[in-house]
């Protein structure tokens, strides 16, 4: 892409005037996708550019602010190139550094197991200790919950062997118990960058007081995350909220334009537990859908219905689906037919 061509020119001309190298950072906001990864690699490879503290700070902040979804692909390049402990200390007094370090440490901790970063990280125990100390001194807000969430995940999944593991788990769990509050999560539900974690916390912490907020959010902008929370709660109001959102997904043309087929399938799959005539009608419609994923979801929902709600039309459709051209649909239909004692011949 053109950004990488510009980077090549800046590196070449920077051999005559090293001041030009700093303009490589200015290209990060314009880079996209793998262009971000290649540009970070070029910045790191440019002799002297990140030798100074100012250069490292620039790399940390610019890369974390402009990763364009490629964070996991640039994490190790940035990590190897900066003084992590120094910037953990700076995070106490510089908000941009704090936000950038939180993103970087999230990526390091959440990806530690899969990527093997923990084992390769120099001074890893000192860096871990500095980050925990930073968390302990942090005010109670949603940023702190993000820090603690990744630490808890790391201590459960990311450390292969550590003699202090049980002790550290207890320490971070105790800190979480002291600092967590539903009221820290509530405003985060309205912030796009925080919504994924906020919804995870509603589900994992069984934050029932926040379910009305999730229902309102689902009504405004339904997606797989709000569906997961409402389905996990399985309260009557929450299942009704899922049912109310179904018509917006039902039209195949609308689904194809919005890319919401996956979400509609998730909604349909949960309706069997609702057990109302409206839910049965929606499941019946799904069983006749053109998309095999939706038909399969309809069969799964039918299997969880009380037999008292299984209409003759539903029985007829399940018999048809047993002979479905899609093998996965046919298998789910057979399961539902067995649950309800439907003779499929």
Class from helix and strand fractions = mainly alpha
Question: Shape from CA axes?
Answer: elongated
**From the structure provided, what is the oligomeric state, counting identical versus distinct chains?**
single chain
Can you give the helix content as a percent range?
55-70%
Strand content: under 5%
Uncertain runs = none
Number of helices: 23
Q: How many DSSP-defined strands?
A: 0
Radius of gyration using CA atoms only: 26 Å
Biggest sheet statistics? none
Helix/strand order, N-terminal first: HHHHHHHHHHHHHHHHHHHHHHH
Overall pLDDT: 88
Distance between the termini: 60 Å
Secondary-structure topology with pairs:
Blueprint: H1 2-14, H2 34-45, H3 53-65, H4 71-81, H5 84-90, H6 95-110, H7 112-115, H8 117-120, H9 124-137, H10 142-157, H11 165-179, H12 182-185, H13 192-204, H14 211-220, H15 224-233, H16 236-245, H17 247-250, H18 252-258, H19 261-270, H20 277-287, H21 292-304, H22 312-322, H23 327-339
